[in-house]
Amino acid sequence: METTTQRRRIGAYGVCRDDGRILMCRNAQGVLQLPGGAVAQGEHPVDAVVRTLAETAGLTVEVTGLRDAVTDVVRAPGYQAHNDRLLFDVRIAGGNLPGHIEWLAAEAAEAVPLQEVAGGTFPPRSVQRFGAYGLVTDPEERVLLTQIALGYPGAGEWHLPGGGTDFGEPPKAGLLRELAEEANQHGRITELLGVSSGHNPKALGPEGYPIDWHVVRVHYRVAVDEPVPPLVTEGAGSSTAAAAWFTPEELPNVRLTRAAATVIRDYFRR
């Protein structure tokens, strides 16, 4: 039986618009593509898009927002590559436009396929993970949270529902799957909120030894129109110990992860 090698990478790209056109550049092989590249181990995707646009396009840019998160799988005999891609809106802040830069009409630019995310192998005992998480609310504005199980980094803290996506799984589909598995809720995604990055070079988990752990999280707003009592339906070894609804008044007394606290704070400030 033929063995298939599976590889996952995270990429960050800049979408720069001007008068209905989108900035594109040609790579070393002369192929036209959206400027950007791979997110390095431990690197925040916003920093990655600034760095890669300087490297691939010779431009200094400012990131103005997260436009989209998309996933694709490249398949070849004995090989499969899963690419998670974050598309950021950017504006040019400096630099000279080199000769390999081209402005394409939006329709033409959107038809250009994104290249496979190039990048070397990760060092031993290092993990880069892409996940989708939701700020989940019900009609009463209660917030759904999940508690991290013993044996996992952050054990006992309450986090946003969600988790790592499976191979070939888009982030929205992964989030709705995790919502059902972690809390037995069915929701609908209403908004893309943003992206966060977490890096722990000595994370201790169920493996029993330190791992250089880097997680990139895409955050969505999720509405549960018909909430039910939360129930963890994942099997043995789940990273989720419990799930519960919390009123806004209860949240200040809940022990939250840093990522959850930031997303919830920003939401209620809006």
Automatic annotation (TrEMBL):
<dbReference type="GO" id="GO:0016787">
    <property type="term" value="F:hydrolase activity"/>
</dbReference>
<dbReference type="InterPro" id="IPR015797">
    <property type="entry name" value="NUDIX_hydrolase-like_dom_sf"/>
</dbReference>
<feature type="domain" description="Nudix hydrolase">
    <location>
        <begin position="127"/>
        <end position="270"/>
    </location>
</feature>
<protein>
    <recommendedName>
        <fullName>Nudix hydrolase domain-containing protein</fullName>
    </recommendedName>
</protein>
<dbReference type="InterPro" id="IPR020084">
    <property type="entry name" value="NUDIX_hydrolase_CS"/>
</dbReference>
<feature type="domain" description="Nudix hydrolase">
    <location>
        <begin position="5"/>
        <end position="130"/>
    </location>
</feature>
<keyword id="KW-0378">Hydrolase</keyword>
<dbReference type="InterPro" id="IPR000086">
    <property type="entry name" value="NUDIX_hydrolase_dom"/>
</dbReference>
<dbReference type="Pfam" id="PF00293">
    <property type="entry name" value="NUDIX"/>
</dbReference>
